[in-house]
Amino acid sequence: MSRSWEGGSTRAWRRTRALVLVRDGYLCQLRLPGVCTTTATHVHHTAGRSVTGDDPAYLVASCAPCNLKLGDPTKLADRPNKAVTKW
C-alpha cells in the first residue's frame, strides 16, 4: 500500500472507486502484456493522485497486477540525460 493510504481509505474514495469500476465495466483499462488478468479490482490514477486528486476523469479501472506494476505515474517521468544536459 502506498503511503497515501496509510490511514485507510475514505468514504469519498470508496464511492469514487466504485463509480470508476462500474463505468469501466470492471475491465482492466491498462492491459499490460504478460501481467493483465482483465478483471478490474483496483483503480489507477493516470496522472498521479498528488497532481489530480481523485478526479474520475484521471482514474481508470485496472487489475491488481497492472496497477501494481505501473505504480505511481508521477515517477514515470523521464529524467534528464546527464550525458547531454549540462547544469
Summarize the structure.
The protein has 87 residues and is of the alpha+beta class. It has three helices and two strands; from the N terminus they run H-E-H-E-H.
Describe the structure.
The chain has 87 residues and is an alpha+beta fold. The longest helix is centred in the first third of the chain and has 13 residues. It has one domain. The protein has a two-stranded antiparallel ribbon. It is built from three helices and two strands, in the order αβαβα. It is 28% helix and 9% strand.
List the helices and strands and how they pair.
Blueprint: H1 11-23, E1 42-45, H2 49-52, E2 59-62, H3 64-70
Antiparallel strand pairs: 1-2
Largest sheet: 2 strands, antiparallel
* Distinct helical segment count: 3
The shape, in one word, is globular
Specify Rg, calculated over alpha carbons: 15 Å
Query: In terms of per-residue confidence, which ranges show pLDDT below 50 for 5 or more consecutive residues?
Result: none
Q: Kindly, what is the distance between the CA atoms of the first and last residues, rounded to a whole number of angstroms?
A: 36 Å
SSE order in H/E notation? Answer: HEHEH
Number of domain modules: 1
Computed structural class: alpha+beta
Percentage of β-strand residues: 5-15%
